[in-house]
């Protein structure tokens, strides 16, 4: 008998231990034989996933931490994982890995996408606001919502705004400065 892992308390046979993830067995932690060797064939004559007498090993019971983020399903000589949404199986079907939604096509977000364990988050660049669907961004109407610092006229543009001045004034950043020609004409009157 051996213990599969420090966190597992399940006792298993030598063949279960060596073929299903254990590295050693017994109180002295005798190392498992290397796969394909004569010792390995003596320990597991029926191959991986089977006991010495040919019975199927239920890996899902022996190793309860299999298929984290999914459900373990025992098969003859092996097991498979049925993963929760937002997770995908590896090429062997024996592990549930985080699905990177941000790298899929089409992308779930129309601007900025940040993947996280089992999910993702959409966000918008400056000048845009995230819609209720949590995925799409819409231009922020700074002029209508009074989110601008223009002295006179605000003109909305995609992703921002620009300031305009009345005739006779010149634009300087967000301020309007009286132009020289307007000043000189005022002095004449």
Strand order of the largest sheet: 1-2
Structural class: alpha+beta
Envelope shape = rod-shaped
Range of helix content = 10-25%
The share of residues in extended strands comes to 25-35%
Average pLDDT confidence is: 79
| Radius of gyration over all CA atoms, rounded | 34 Å
Count the helices. How many? 4
Topology pattern, helix = H, strand = E:
EEHEEHHEEEEEEEEEEEEH
Summarize the structure in words:
The model is unreliable at 1-8 and 182-189 (pLDDT under 50). Strands 1-2 form a two-stranded antiparallel sheet. Helix content is 13%, strand content 32%. It is of the alpha+beta class and 189 residues long.
Defining traits:
189 residues; alpha+beta; two-stranded antiparallel ribbon; two-stranded antiparallel sheet; 16 strands; 13% helix; 32% strand; disordered N terminus; disordered C terminus
């Amino acid at each position: 008998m051996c213990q599969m892992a420090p966190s597992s308390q399940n006792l298993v046979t030598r063949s279960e231990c060596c073929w299903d993830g254990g590295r050693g067995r017994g109180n002295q932690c005798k190392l498992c034989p290397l796969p394909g060797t004569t010792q390995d064939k003596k320990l597991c004559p029926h191959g991986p996933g089977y006991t010495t007498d040919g019975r199927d090993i239920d890996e899902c019971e022996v190793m309860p931490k299999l298929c984290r983020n999914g459900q373990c399903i025992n098969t003859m000589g092996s097991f498979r994982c049925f993963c929760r949404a937002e997770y995908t199986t590896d090429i062997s079907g024996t592990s549930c890995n985080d699905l990177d939604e941000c790298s899929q096509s089409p992308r779930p977000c129309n601007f900025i996408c940040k993947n996280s364990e089992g999910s993702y988050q959409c966000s918008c660049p400056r000048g845009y606001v995230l819609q209720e669907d949590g995925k799409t961004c819409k231009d922020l109407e700074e002029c209508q919502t009074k989110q601008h610092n223009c002295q006179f006229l605000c003109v909305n543009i995609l992703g921002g705004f620009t300031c305009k001045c009345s005739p006779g004034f010149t634009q300087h950043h967000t301020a309007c400065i009286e132009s020289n020609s307007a000043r000189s004409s005022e002095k004449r009157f």
